Amino acid sequence: MWMAITRGVSAALARCALEYQPRIPIDIATAAAQHRDYELVLERCGLPVTSLPAHPEFPDGLFVEDPAIVLDEIAVICRMGAASRRGEGESLAEALRPFRKLESIREPATIEGGDVMRLGKTLFCGISRRTNREGARQLASMVEPFGYTVIPVEVSGCLHLKSAICPVADDTVLLNRRSIGVEAFGGLKMLDIAGEEAGAANVLRIGGKIIMPASFPRTREMLERAGFEVMTVDISELQKAEAGVTCSSLIFKVA
Fold this sequence. Notes:
Blueprint: E1 2-7, H1 28-44, E2 49-52, E3 68-70, E4 74-77, H2 89-96, E5 101-104, E6 116-119, E7 122-127, H3 133-143, E8 149-154, E9 165-169, E10 172-175, E11 189-192, E12 204-206, E13 209-213, H4 217-225, E14 229-233, H5 236-239, E15 250-253
Parallel strand pairs: 1-2, 4-5, 7-8, 10-11, 13-14
Antiparallel strand pairs: 1-15, 3-4, 6-7, 9-10, 12-13
């Protein structure tokens, strides 16, 4: 069985940590309603959703993918690249403790879960403004005993690796070539986003369904023509905080 952990929208979301987007006013009530719609989409995909209370002191707290990397064997609690977010992992660790043994990334490493894309036993780890090479190295030391391989990938022009590439099948990825090199992904089938939809590569695969923001209709049409079942959700207010559809949930298998 699979489950999802989410977290409510903080009233302080407008003070979120931004890297590439200009700061635009965020309607908190609309953002919270969109986040609830996102949770309902997860439930329609068959996932029980555990929604943690909002973190009033952490504007970015709803982005639960970043403070932890959950694998089948362990959960790695991250040391966030954004210093303002480094307290988020504590309560998330408590939520994960019943399900996984916990390991923690240590200084001077930084790593955020949005920079880690898993395909089977391979973890592609983005080297970005939020994740450094020491973070990738420490992650590798924790997961290699379980048979995983960590492959560093340089990221530029977007927040995280999964802002630029995400799996849509076991052997296929959707990507924005302008933000990452493709050399590390040799052997995988590659689908390119529609040219003007820069954020469209961030999609969430659940079983045979692909969840993506409603704001990328041309990429949705391309995926549907390729035979994928696509579900969309309006996260337009959350996108002002550099949100995608992967970052607002932690999805993992439980016994």
